Structure formats: structure tokens, C-alpha cells
Amino acid sequence: MTATEWSTEPSVLDARRLDRSGVEPAGRPAAVAFPRSAEQVREVLRDAYAGRTPVVPRGAGTALTGASTAGAGAIVLDLSRMNRIRELRPDDGVAVVEPGVITADLDRAAAAHGLRYAPDPASLEISTIGGNIATNAGGLRCAKYGVTRDSVLGLDVVLADGRLVSTGRATLKGVAGYDLTSLFVGSEGTLGVVVGATLRLRPLPEPTVTFAASYGDLFDAAAASVALATARIQPVLAELLDEATLDAIDAADGTHLRKAGSALLLVQIDGGPQEAARAAEVLGRAASDLRSTSDRSETAVLLAARRGALPAIERLGRPLIEDIAVPRSRLAEAVREIAEIARRHDVPICTLAHAGDGNLHPIIVAGRSAGPIPAAASLAADDIFELALRLGGTVTGEHGVGLLKRAWLARELGPVSHDLQRQLKALFDPRGILNPGKAL
Amino acid sequence: MTATEWSTEPSVLDARRLDRSGVEPAGRPAAVAFPRSAEQVREVLRDAYAGRTPVVPRGAGTALTGASTAGAGAIVLDLSRMNRIRELRPDDGVAVVEPGVITADLDRAAAAHGLRYAPDPASLEISTIGGNIATNAGGLRCAKYGVTRDSVLGLDVVLADGRLVSTGRATLKGVAGYDLTSLFVGSEGTLGVVVGATLRLRPLPEPTVTFAASYGDLFDAAAASVALATARIQPVLAELLDEATLDAIDAADGTHLRKAGSALLLVQIDGGPQEAARAAEVLGRAASDLRSTSDRSETAVLLAARRGALPAIERLGRPLIEDIAVPRSRLAEAVREIAEIARRHDVPICTLAHAGDGNLHPIIVAGRSAGPIPAAASLAADDIFELALRLGGTVTGEHGVGLLKRAWLARELGPVSHDLQRQLKALFDPRGILNPGKAL
User: Fold this and answer.
1) Number of other CB atoms surrounding residue A346 within 10 Å
2) pLDDT at residue B78 in the model
């Protein structure tokens, strides 16, 4: 076995102490390890366990919550060099990968066999499977095809003390023992380090039909997205853009989206012509404008608004991307109240939503400087979390808890659940070395 | 609060000491409690915890593994009277139910709104949601629509000491905290007692096309089921019946299935006409006979073979229903080897398989008497488990571990995972009162 590569170069450390949350950890990590095998990860953890050294596992550092930040004294465990697709077995509908594989690379490899890796977080071209697993990443098409957890069959995990455990299975179905796999998925590197994953690949679907429906009123747009399900339609994606977002896109791209209506709903269907026809009927009922296409390049044009939203909002100032979810029927109410929160605190908030599953991304525009977050933005964020819980929802739909939402997590979980979760953490990581202070 | 109803009548106890596994527990349970609310369950558990009394939660008693058997000294916690659908919210795609709701009843209630509860264990007309959750029940259409876990959003669970914890969420997406929901799903009543469940409802799909394809060779049938996925087809169900099963059905029902081929593959498609056309092409390549229909009553005729299989096999003798899963590509090999095991031990074995996810049910015909299982049948079962692990599979695809597969579970999990699972059990149930001796 070759030795694990290490670095203590300041530039290497600085490139691995932050994620995309804007959270600034105190100090600089002690070292970065670049393991190339499970055995090397085990060695790093055995030593860290013996020395009680904090270890921060890291994929691509695209977390939006502070989950991948590393401060003074920590070892960053950079898993990006464990990036091999070890097996791709089309007949089994299974891939076995290392954690550093880029999500889109796996999807492309599967596509060569008529299959795909279904989860599609917006970061899929830069984020890693390991990071997706750590946060149980969602995405656009999870309304129909599920989140990361729904595609993870089994895991190889190095525990805090360096032991290696295999969870789950290589089969599509199986119920032997407690579901440790789901426990590790979404645990943000606090229970163990994923060094291998057995993933489910699904058949590539039928060609899609994409709709862009504009509505004069936000409630009509939200109602249309809800009406799809009871009309027996399962959209692949249903993305809602509010007025502030449309204004931002129009300003950035010279489009006239806002003119067509104050809310835009983008819907994609892959269930065949009958389902597409029903979708056209449902979406058209209250729309001020409805366009649809099956053509590939026209589809890209219709989806351009969603893709361009974040860059357009970034032109207004520094974006704080929130991530609440509410019961689907409360979506319009949530967007309306978020606009009210923006007025109350006098901060711009643009809201995008994965309407199909009630997951909203209110994007707070927090000034132009890179300094501390303005108080008004923080207060607005707190009001948004408060709103999510009041509507029967959650403070995080797909980004995770990290450092930013720990106080709110305790409130959402309640004391019994929070207590159980802390006991689980203590069971898996009795010395508290794995990504300490995160997720709980 | 009214008091919990209790019974110590011998006939009431006897009706609740067994499940459908054939396992005979030692003695008769001490009492049966019939709670009607979470509060009553809490009270039962607080007392049991204080007195260190074993508690066996029970739904409909349809377990095939001994998981619901209760012997001397145990309290049976019969949850069948907690059978209300508390909320059904079509706009949210969510139902909130008590554990004693019959699975098919929920599905019918959802259908009135264009929705359905997707998991369909064969027992769905008699088994309960709580029992489905306890075993993470599968079924026919889980190849496309997932197993029970994939439809459970959140749970209310009474812990061993009587505390009530709510897990998960009422939204379709959410990643706040560790996934306690998945930990309770499939835990066979050993970590807590489910007293409420928030379930996902999905849109009713397009009308289906059903195919019955006969093949002269088992490998051709299995290969056809595998070829579907890489031809971009996601069947709702893909059921394989082997030669011994076809013979049993022909003998019982006067049909001539075996004449058309030595293996029968039943496939259902709900993804529209293009997908159905591709399926016809793929299934037809090597078939000796291929029929298809979209008509409802003709569909029932085609599926009658699958439905009639177990009753037909029961005419041959007492059925021991095994439940292994293997990687999809090893399906034919597994069926072939099971036939060899039958010859070796001179016991009839009929094999049905959910081919879409590699889940096989070899049904060992264990004589005609109700006495102890013959040695040859037990040896054949052990050889089947051995085979599952050798092919990279699992000893239980959807029925669970219960009492019957504990030794094999330890072997499948390996020492590190088994150790972690025992620690989890001790964390949740420090006095070991919840369904003791089961599942682990």
C-alpha cells in the first residue's frame, strides 16, 4: 500500500476550508489528506481517533450550509481523488462507485447503456456522489424520480475508529437488518465516511414534453402545479418562479417574462402523449400564456429562465439561498408570505420553488459586500424558517443543516427526537471527531 | 381517556400467538391489549417497561417469518383497532393514518381522488399499514413504484419507555436530521411501536398494457426481463414463473401453461404506447408465445396464473415461502440452481420471482402434515440462503428476518454491521422488551 498523500501548504489548506455557504470558520485547518483508497481512509481515521483530531470529509465543497467548512486544528479528508466508477452493470441496473465521482459523469456513463443515475442536484456537473450522499441531495426531477437516498442501495463506510462497514446490498430489494444505509445518507459526514456506494440506475425515460405556463396570479400557478397530481399526472419537474425572480431575469437577460404573467411555471412530462395532453389541459385552464415543445433545443430555451435565475439574482447582490419545504398545497401561501417578509425587512427576496414537492428556495439578496451578513437578511431568514414550521414544513428540503440551521433543527425535531439523534451520534462517533459541530 | 381494553381469554390469546410462518412459540402469551390511541399505547409500554415485560406488536399477523409470534409471558399489543384514516389530503399527496388501517382500504380511499398508495404486498387486502411498515413490505409493482419505505414520509412512534417521537415530516422532501423514519421502517417492532404514519400518495398511472410471454428456456425468459431496462423500459411488474410452478397451476386449474413454454414472464407497462411497443419487441424476440392486452378483464385472465400460483402449490402440500434477492442478471442462474437443490434434497420447490428487481420466492413443498418441518426441507432452505449470498444477494428481499433467518442475517451482515445493529437495538430498547429475539 502506498502512503496517503498529505499537504500543509497554506494555499492548499485555504482552498479547502470553505464551502459555498459564506460561513467563515475560525482559523485554518491543520492538514489535508488525499486518500486514494478505503484502506488509506481507514488509516487516517485510526490515527485521528487515537489522537482525538477532528476530521472534515470533503467532496467538491459545494455545500450551502457550512457542512464542509474546516477550522483550526481539523484534518480535511479530501475524497476527490477516489473518483473511479468501479463497476457499471447495466443488466443489474447497478453502479459501484467511489465517493469522488462527479455526479454528471456517472449519469453520462449510464446513458451509454440506456440508463441513468436519476438524482440531479443543480450542482451535478461539479458536485460528487459522496457529497450528494452526505446531504441526501435533491434536484429538479426528484418529484418523479426521488432524491439521492432513493438511488442508494448500499454503502461502504469507514467508522470513526477506522472500522469498515458495508451497509445495504447490491440487489434492488432487500430488508435484512436495520437500514443503516439510510442512516448514513444525509448525515453530513458526522456518522462515518462513505468510501464506496452501490447505486441504482434506472431506464432512460421517454422523450419529454416541456411546458412554460405564465399566470397573472401566483395562486393560479401554484394551484395548477397541485392540480397535476389529482389529474393523474406525475411531472418530472415543476418549477415555479415568482415575480421578483422574473424581474431579475428580465433585467439580466433582456427577456420579457414578467410581461406574460407574474408567475412562471415550468413543467416537464415524460409519461407519453396522453399524460402530456392532460397536462396541457390542466396547465392551460388559468394560464395567461402557455407554450410547449418536444424539441430538444426549444426545450432548452423554455428551461433557460430556470437555469438563468441564480446568475440573474447574483447580479443584484450576494445571494443567500434558503431551502424550506412545505406541504404542496401551502406553496402559494408560502411564496406570498415570503414576499411580505421581504417588504417587512426591506431586503430583496427572489423565490424559486420545486413546486412538485413543495420545496422552496427563497434567495435573499444580502447587499453587495463580502462582509458579515446584514442584520435585516438574517432576520428575514429566521422569519422564513419560522414560516416553514408554521405551515407544517421543514427548515431544509434538500441542502441540509450544516452549521447554519442547527438552532432551527432542534426546534423542528423537538426534544425527544433531538435527544435520540444525539445518542446516535455518540454511538457512531463516541469521541466526536467526525465533522464536529455540524448537522445536529 | 378511556382505559385500554385487555383480554386474557384463552381463545383470544390463541388467535394472536401465531403468524403465517408455521413457527410455534413456546407457551401462550399473558394478555392481549387492544389500544385505540397513541396515548393508550404509551401507557401499555410505560407499564411494560417498568415491569420488564416483553411486548409483541401485532397488525394482522400475516408475517411469514415468525416476527409476530408471541410466547409465554408476552403482552400482545394488537393495533388492529387503531384503524382510522385520519387525513387524506389530495392536494398535498399525503395521507395520515393509524397503523391498523388495511393497506387496500387506503389505496381505495386515495383512488377516489385520482391517487394511489403505491406499495402492493400480495397480502394488501388483509395486512395493515403498520405491519407493512414493520417489515418494509414489497410487492409486485415496487420495481417501478418502490417498496413501503419509499412511501413513508414520517412516523409517530412510541419508544420502549413510553416516550412518543415524531420522525420525518409531512412534506414530500426534507433532510432535517438523521433519517429515523427509515430506521423504524423494517425494524419489525424491535425499536418502537408505530402509532401513526404520514404516507405519500402518487398519481394513478396511465392505463396499463399487460404481456404474457412464454419461453422454451428459463434463461431466455430471465434475459428478456433484464433486456427491458436497457431498452429504456420500466415495467410496473415483471413476474417470472418457473416450470414447477406452471405444472402446479396446470394441475390445479386445468390450464395448459406449461405447453406454451417452460417459463412464463408476465409484464405490465404503464408508460404509454411507445414504451408498450418497445416492450412487445423486446419480449417477443425469444418468446414461444406472446399475448398482450389493455382490456381490464383480459388483463385479469393473463395475471390469473400469478394469482393462482400459491393456491395451486398449496394443493401439493404445506408451502414454505422463501424470499431471497439476487442481482437481476443472476436471476436465471438462481432459478436453475434452486431446481437443482430441489432434486438434491428430493423436495418439490416451485419458484416465482419478481424479476424486475431480482426477488425470488422459492416455495418449498414440505410434506402434507402439520408437524415439524422435514429435515430435507430445512436443508433445502439453507442451501437457498447460501445460494443467495454466493450470488451477491440477500436472504430476505421483502419478508424480513423474524425468527427464521436470524442465523443467516448475522452471516449476511458480517460482524461490524451486526455489532452496530445490536448497539442500535440497545440504544432504543435498553431493557429488551420490544419483540425480543426477533429481527436481529
Assistant:
1) 8
2) 98
